[in-house]
């Protein structure tokens, strides 16, 4: 008897037939005596459809007034889902009630289209659970201080589910999705990729931030911060498989490092094509420059990833960093309008045809020579490295996007990830 949170992605919610299957699965857990909270995404394709409509009417601007309406619009996808799922549960004979984010409420800040959850009130949900109901809560959305509807960014339902699990102190948060767990890399790129039965929270964080699309990164941050036990598992298994079997499937995100000590040094290869590189050439090499550049970018609410500043020559240096491709034009604009004049340079260059490839593993902490093995594997394929960044448990390189798949395959092989762990 435990409080369990289930999250279902858009594919699982893609049709009334599939929603009925979700309801049957949830009903199975409910009948086994668990208190169930379910957080679904919008039906697959729905968020894109809604945002597509918006684009037809307002293609150009993205100020706060526009972003507010995008959230108003996009949040409806999840509202449809929770209503349908609660109806399907009731049809299965399970008492169920659905809530939109503002009804729970899920409190967020006011950063429309990428809001962050501040807190979640649990009284209303607890009351329903105590009354024997399954509670269905919209993913992806919340409400700000002044009552405006906000959304959490694409893929945000994962974060909603984990945040609800944290607020309710759930025993486990199960993320049902169209893959059956976390893999050593994307199997579409490397068919030999293997499913990991466990992955540490820190590795998962790196892989999610590196573009392994299984979970939204904020959901992993949340899980780490509040130590929410998290499992990623397939929504395509028959709904009536035994609970014990279902509860042990997929990939468990662990917090115990010791369990992993015996395993491979590198656990996975992550990659993404979502970033763009920006360089400012001829920047004066004096204190405060990085702050001047990146402070202006941060003020525009743009996240920066890899950063490089070169050794200076005659008091001048080059400064490069990457941002999300969607933020590329806006970043260049900020630099030109807010930064260039005071730096005394307008030589701003951009490259959107890059990708980032990373090796990730907590074993890297206790092993040397891992990065050089990575560089060798890339050099043997003739791939030029443009930027490098490292942390304790990962090494990332920025390369030309046309070599992405080649690089991922070479690294997967170089680190023996296609061999079952010893
Ligand atoms: N429906 C939203 C999206 O497509 C949120 C989610 O699916 O997690 O991004
Ligand atoms: Mg998703």
TrEMBL record:
One of its GO biological process terms is: homoserine biosynthetic process
Q: Where, in this chain's numbering, is ATP bound?
A: 7-10, 177-178, 183, 188, 213-214
Where do the annotations place substrate binding? 47, 78
On the tree of life, the source organism's domain of life is Bacteria
Specify the ACT domain's residue ranges.
278-353, 359-422
Which InterPro entries has this protein been placed in? AceGlu_kinase-like_sf, ACT-like_dom_sf, ACT_Aspartokinase, ACT_dom, AKii-LysC-BS, Asp/Glu/Uridylate_kinase, Asp_kin_monofn, Asp_kinase
- Keyword Amino-acid biosynthesis listed? The answer is yes
Q: What is its EC number?
A: 2.7.2.4
The record's annotation in PROSITE patterns points to: ACT (PS51671), ASPARTOKINASE (PS00324)
Spell out the family assignment given in the record's similarity comment: Belongs to the aspartokinase family.
This protein is called: Aspartokinase
């Amino acid at each position: 008897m435990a409080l369990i949170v289930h999250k279902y992605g858009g594919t699982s919610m893609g049709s009334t037939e599939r929603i009925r299957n979700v309801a049957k699965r949830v009903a199975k857990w409910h009948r086994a005596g668990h208190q169930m909270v379910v957080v679904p995404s919008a039906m697959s394709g729905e968020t894109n459809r809604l945002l597509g409509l918006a684009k037809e009417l307002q293609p150009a601007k993205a100020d706060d007034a526009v972003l507010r309406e995008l959230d108003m619009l996009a949040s409806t996808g999840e509202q449809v889902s929770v209503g349908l799922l609660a109806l399907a549960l009731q049809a299965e004979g399970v008492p169920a009630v659905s809530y939109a984010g503002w009804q729970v409420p899920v409190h967020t800040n006011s950063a429309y289209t990428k809001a962050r959850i501040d807190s979640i009130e649990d009284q209303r949900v607890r009351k329903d659970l105590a009354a024997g109901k399954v509670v269905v809560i919209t993913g992806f959305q919340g409400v700000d201080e002044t009552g405006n509807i906000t959304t959490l960014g694409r893929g945000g339902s994962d974060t909603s589910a984990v945040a609800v699990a944290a607020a309710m102190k759930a025993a486990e948060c199960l993320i049902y999705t169209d893959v059956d767990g976390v893999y050593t890399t994307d199997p579409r790129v490397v068919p030999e990729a293997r499913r990991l039965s466990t992955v540490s929270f820190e590795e998962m964080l790196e892989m999610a931030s590196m573009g392994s699309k299984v979970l939204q990164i904020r959901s992993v941050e949340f899980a780490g911060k509040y130590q929410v036990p998290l499992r990623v598992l397939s929504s395509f298994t028959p709904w009536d498989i035994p609970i014990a079997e279902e509860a042990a499937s997929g990939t468990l995100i662990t917090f115990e490092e010791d369990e992993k000590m015996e395993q491979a040094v590198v656990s996975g290869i992550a990659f993404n094509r979502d970033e763009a590189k920006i360089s400012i050439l001829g920047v004066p090499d004096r204190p405060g420059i990085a702050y001047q550049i990146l402070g202006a970018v941060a003020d525009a609410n743009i996240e920066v990833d890899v950063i490089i500043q070169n050794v200076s020559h005659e008091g001048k240096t080059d400064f490069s960093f990457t941002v999300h491709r969607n933020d590329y034009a806006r970043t260049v604009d900020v630099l030109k309008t807010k930064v260039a004049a005071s730096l005394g340079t307008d030589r701003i260059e951009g490259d959107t045809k890059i990708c980032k490839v990373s090796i990730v593993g907590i074993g890297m902490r206790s092993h040397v020579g891992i990065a050089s093995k990575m560089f060798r594997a890339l050099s043997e394929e003739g791939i030029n490295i443009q930027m490098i960044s490292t942390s304790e448990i990962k090494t990332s390189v920025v390369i030309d996007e046309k070599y992405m798949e080649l690089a991922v395959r070479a690294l997967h092989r170089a680190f023996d990830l296609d061999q079952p762990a010893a």
